Amino acid sequence: MRIHTTIAEFRAALKGGIALVPTMGNLHEGHIALMRQAKELADTVVATIFVNRLQFRPTDDFEKYPRTFEADCEKLDAAGVGHLFAPSEVEMYPQPQEYHVEPPPSQAGILDGEFRPGHFRGVATVVLKLFNIATPRVALFGKKDYQQLMVIRNMVRELNLSVEIAAGETVRAADGLALSSRNGYLSPAERAEAPRLQRELARVRQALLAGERDFARLEEQAMAELRANGWIPNYVAVRNRVDLQCPAAHDSELVVLGAALLGSTRLIDNLEV
Ligand code: PAF
After folding, report:
1. Quick check: is 173 in a domain?
2. Which domain holds residue 264?
3. Is there a single domain that holds both residue 29 and residue 157?
4. Which of 31, 83, 119, 250 is catalytic?
């Protein structure tokens, strides 16, 4: 695998037909599944590793976000990824970033955006920069970050970017917990409790499939169950898949999303209905 750390050298090495998989590193099987999917979509697979300060608030976990570069390179090599772009902060942000992509509050101010103000602005801005740097034909993002995927799809459509967006399914541990770099923060007891979030979302999903349409009641029941087991839920929400707005009773393309704190670790998950 070739590792590039400067934009100039990275651009010179690449020509067309690229599938890009942006990451912040600390790679797990969910990322590797995206790499495999990328290999099906283009001749050249490019992974990026960049912990993007812009998408963290001062109170977030930017400094303690796990950085495991050597192990990540081994995993990417084993997955047959040809190129890794791993820029420094100075390479990505040589001067303070004053131009930003500002997703509309209707998309970026809801759900996770309500609890992490500015997060999707930081994500959209760095993703647009990565698209401009790598000029991929296709870029892949996991469904685990469902709102992020929606914001990026809409950015691409509204700004007429010539990149196709492909979505990867969420990869789960045997007990149902969605793989995430933040799972590493969990104590053994919290790790044992963590699959409850997915189980509560699955309960809501089952009720919806059975025809239940009192969304508020289902959401509140799931949050009460989480609270009763020591979680601090941010939200459990039934939404339309396409725009994550509140559905009408007759809408059918739904997704149930949840975010909750377990100890000091914030976990998110979702299930399409
Ligand atoms: O999903 C992530 O890891 C990040 O939000 C992304 C898309 C790499 C942008 O920094």
Report:
1. no
2. 181-272
3. yes
4. 31
pLDDT score for 215:
98
Is-catalytic flag, 83? no
Ligand 1 binding pocket, CB closer than 6 Å: 22-24, 52, 55, 123, 126-127, 145, 148
Domain holding 195: CATH number? 3.30.1300.10
Give the residue, by CA position, lying nearest to ligand 1 atom 6.
Answer: 23
Ligand 1 closest atom vs CA 24: 3
- Pairs from 145-149 (Cβ < 8 Å, separation ≥ 24): 145/268, 146/244, 146/255, 146/257, 146/270, 147/107, 147/110, 147/111, 147/112, 147/113, 147/120, 147/244, 147/257, 148/120, 148/123
- Residue 175: inside a domain: no
Same domain, yes or no, for 47 and 162? yes
* Per-residue model confidence as pLDDT tens digits over 80-109: 999 999 999 999 999 999 999 999 999 999
Domain count, the chain: 2
| Residue range 103-136, pLDDT digits in tens | 999 999 999 999 999 999 999 999 999 999 999 9
